[in-house]
């Protein structure tokens, strides 16, 4: 057997495995939704055809010829994604380990995330520009993919665009959302918080420019979204049955009337199916054979294994302020390698924790070198801590304002625009709740409990008559805010956030505080929610309703969730 034959054999095997993967995932989704999916089952059977070597070669040949005549191949259009991938994985790892990356790198990482949607999912720039945090929060996992629906689709007047990210792509967007976006978010008072925020602190407005900047950074000729969408359409036209074409066109979100009429209802399985189908263009494309070499795949796998092992390592040896990094013997006994990689990472994390701890001690006045030295020595730290000089240099005066006169808070109350929060549906009897879309420090004000101010006695009367277990009352001392009437008269077009905050006795992270807010037209009693601990992104906001199991509807009700 010649080496070329062996190589061919391996290539065909890989293609066959890829096809099986595609087919299995389709089958899986189809079997769950069998009643609705007869059409997809038919589609499955037609998908079998390209496996035949002859058919596959014929398809590839035609496609190849067509590229020569006019279009760049999909492989060429995706070049920037391959070229920058190594860098992006490097940045991804750094973000996860809380390592510093420069502002330029953060922007580049954002370009990459945008490019995932534009180049790998063939979406229009308007989808990237309109993508909101609440749409990200509503993402749904289906069949191994993360399905996202974007409704603010400016450029094409579409109802909604849906795309299904694979695990790696979703992880990249998640890293951007958790570690980069919060730094750039400004209290912009935007109606809807956008997912992609530029370094100026405002939502991005030109995703196609970002895409061309990503190409320019890697010194590659630009690929526009129109171009890659045309290529995908051509492939769809060549490879797909009529039915598959509809699915693909649906995914590409045609803006014309026919498409709108045809593709009204979008479902999770439909998006996943389309994404698998479109992914199949790439996988079965002859010229994309080198997309990710086996070496590159191995490197990616190793990196993923490393990340998984590091989190196992940190679970086994949690990073504490005063602990010692695990010795070689302890590491080996716990089943980790004797190398120093995780040991070093553990130390980096402890160093950062200690720095944060020291800085948090000096809330009012700047510390002196002697004072920090004394504190370090009191903590008993001998090594792996920042120097007193570092802490003095990093200290920043606290930003102090009285809440009652804080113009930002006053404005937010009046407009009912609070940033860093979104409503999430938890389903079941719990219903909706509020989650953080940016981190909040202990002591910060998140939002108010907007509603009608009544006395606590009046509130009690209302509470005793509640029959549906849904209570929108907030008691603070002798005051009560009644937010049952929705929408309120002053904000008829708004879903106010405070009334959506759920209860927790044991894990409350905010508490209601009564403030006499100084508005230009006089003082008003307002109930504000203040963080009683640091709050992370994605964390649900909860406060202790301060009511007991039998508070609702008098003695008749006995609600277990009030004990949570
Ligand atoms: C102020 S509303 C909170 C928003 C509400 N979940 C919704 O969907 O509109 C209070 C109601 O939410 C529900 N709720 C609040 N906290 C809950 C919890 N921890 N578990 C289950 N249901 C809860 C109860 O029905 C309660 O009467």
Automatic annotation (TrEMBL):
Pfam family, one: SET
Region described as Disordered: spans on this chain: 280-307
Annotated InterPro entries: SET_dom, SET_dom_sf
The SET domain, residue ranges: 419-546
Domain of life: Eukaryota
Protein name: SET domain-containing protein
């Amino acid at each position: 057997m010649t080496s070329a034959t062996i190589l061919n054999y391996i290539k065909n095997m890989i293609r066959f495995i890829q096809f099986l993967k595609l087919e299995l995932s389709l089958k899986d989704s189809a079997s769950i939704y069998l009643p609705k999916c007869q059409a997809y089952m038919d589609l499955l059977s037609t998908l079998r055809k390209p496996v035949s070597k002859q058919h596959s070669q014929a398809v590839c040949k035609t496609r190849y010829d067509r590229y020569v005549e006019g279009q760049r191949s999909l492989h060429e259009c995706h070049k920037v994604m391959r070229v920058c991938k190594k860098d992006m994985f490097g940045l991804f790892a750094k973000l996860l380990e809380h390592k510093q990356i420069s502002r330029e790198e953060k922007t580049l990482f954002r370009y990459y995330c945008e490019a995932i949607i534009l180049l790998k999912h063939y979406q229009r720039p308007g989808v990237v520009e309109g993508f909101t945090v609440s749409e990200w929060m509503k993402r749904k996992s289906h069949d191994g993919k993360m399905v996202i629906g974007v409704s603010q689709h400016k450029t094409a007047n579409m109802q909604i665009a849906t795309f299904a990210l694979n695990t790696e792509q979703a992880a990249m967007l998640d890293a951007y959302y958790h570690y980069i976006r919060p730094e750039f978010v400004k209290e912009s008072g935007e109606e809807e918080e956008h997912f992609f925020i530029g370094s100026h602190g405002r939502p991005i407005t030109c995703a196609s420019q970002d895409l061309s900047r990503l190409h320019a950074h890697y010194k590659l000729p630009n690929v526009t979204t129109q171009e890659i969408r045309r290529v995908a359409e051509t492939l769809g036209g060549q490879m797909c049955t009529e039915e598959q074409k509809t699915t693909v066109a649906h995914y590409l979100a045609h803006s014309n009337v026919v498409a709108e009429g045809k593709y009204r209802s979008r479902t999770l399985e439909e998006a996943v199916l389309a994404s698998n189908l479109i992914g199949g263009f790439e996988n079965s494309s002859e010229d994309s054979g080198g997309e990710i070499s086996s070496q590159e795949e191995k490197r990616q796998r190793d990196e993923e294994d490393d990340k998984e092992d590091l989190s196992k390592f940190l679970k086994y040896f949690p990073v504490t302020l005063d602990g010692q990094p695990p010795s070689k013997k302890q590491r080996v006994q716990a089943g980790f390698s004797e190398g120093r990689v995780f040991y070093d990472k553990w130390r980096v994390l402890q160093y950062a924790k200690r720095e944060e701890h020291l800085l948090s001690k000096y809330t009012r006045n700047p510390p002196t070198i002697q004072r920090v030295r004394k504190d370090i020595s009191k903590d008993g730290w001998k090594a792996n801590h920042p120097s007193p000089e570092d802490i003095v240099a990093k200290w920043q005066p606290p930003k102090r304002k009285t809440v009652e006169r804080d113009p930002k808070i006053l404005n937010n109350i009046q407009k009912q625009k609070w940033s860093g929060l979104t409503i999430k549906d938890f389903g079941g009897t719990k219903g909706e709740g509020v989650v953080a879309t940016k981190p909040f420090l202990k002591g910060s004000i998140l939002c108010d409990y907007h509603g009608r101010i009544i006395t606590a006695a009046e509130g009690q009367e209302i509470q005793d008559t509640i029959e549906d277990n849904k209570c929108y009352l907030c008691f603070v001392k002798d005051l009560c805010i009644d937010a049952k009437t929705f929408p309120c008269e002053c904000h008829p077009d708004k879903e106010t956030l405070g009334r959506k905050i759920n209860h927790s006795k044991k894990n409350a992270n905010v508490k209601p505080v009564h403030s006499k807010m100084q508005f230009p037209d006089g003082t008003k009693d307002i109930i504000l929610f203040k963080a009683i601990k640091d709050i992370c992104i994605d964390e649900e906001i909860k406060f202790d309703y301060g009511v007991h199991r039998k508070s609702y509807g008098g003695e008749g009700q006995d609600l277990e969730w009030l004990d949570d």
